[in-house]
Amino acid sequence: MTDPAAPIRILLVDDQQLIRLGMRLVLDAEEGLEVVGEAGDGYEALAAVQRLRPDVVLMDVRMPGLDGIEATRSIVATNPASRIIILTTFDLDEYAFAGLNAGASGFLLKDARPAELVSAIRAVASGDAAVSPRVTRKLLEIFGPQLPGPAPTVDASPSQAPDAAAQTLLATLTEREREVLVAMAEGLTNTEIAGRLFLSESTVKTHVGRVLMKLELRDRVQAVIFAYSVGLV
């Protein structure tokens, strides 16, 4: 997560210069956001992340050379502090889900409104995920069996109970942490969770971190998937 007092540093990755220019114009006009670099393909993105250490990477998926999915996977492995938002043309398409499975913190349509783009960037920079509950349900159906943790088996029916490993992990959570996990799965941001549970936002962030640690999950997206897979939501 970024320092609240510092601008959010952003890297733009797209093979179309006009798209990068459009995003830069939008983001440069926003207080607290700073575009620190651009890249035209996955290989350039990897080099730029190593050099610039951005807080957020806006990553196109369909690029020549190294595509955005493989670039995302490499960045997550080598520079996990850089949060990635996948840019895709179609809602709920295979690239969006592949990007989330590779470790992205969310995805946006390329024709998203400027306010949506800015909101998503701020969300992932603060540790939230830019993924709606509807998308999470579909993600679980497609990629659930491939993800670490208590994903259901391919032939599991909705009525079957979660496996023992999932229940063991779930039992490590306090009642408050379970409430936070459920709220995350419903698509609430840290600010919204704080409002619902009458907590400070810093306390919510602490709870989110403990949930991830106890459930042995990589990030918030997988925590949401966990909640769906064990039937909390």
Structural descriptors:
233 residues; Arc Repressor Mutant, subunit A; 11 helices; alpha/beta; 2 domains; globular; Rossmann fold
Oligomerization status of the protein chains: single chain
Helices and strands, in order, run as EHEHEHEHEHHHHHHH
Which strand order does the major sheet show? 2-1-3-4-5
By secondary-structure content and strand pairing, the structural class works out as alpha/beta
Indicate how many domains the architecture comprises: 2
Count the beta strands: 5
Average of the residue pLDDT scores: 83
CATH class category label of the largest domain: Alpha Beta
Explain what you see.
The protein is globular. Helix 1 (17-28) links the parallel strand 1 (8-13) and strand 2 (33-39). The protein has two domains: 8-130, Response regulator (Rossmann fold), CATH 3.40.50.2300; 149-229, Winged helix-like DNA-binding domain superfamily/Winged helix DNA-binding domain (Arc Repressor Mutant, subunit A, Orthogonal Bundle), CATH 1.10.10. Mean pLDDT is 83; it is low at 147-161. The protein is built from eleven helices and five strands. It has 233 residues and is an alpha/beta fold. Helix 6 packs across helix 11 and helix 8 crosses helix 11 (220-229). The chain has a five-stranded parallel β-sheet, sandwiched between helices. The longest helix has 15 residues, at 201-215.
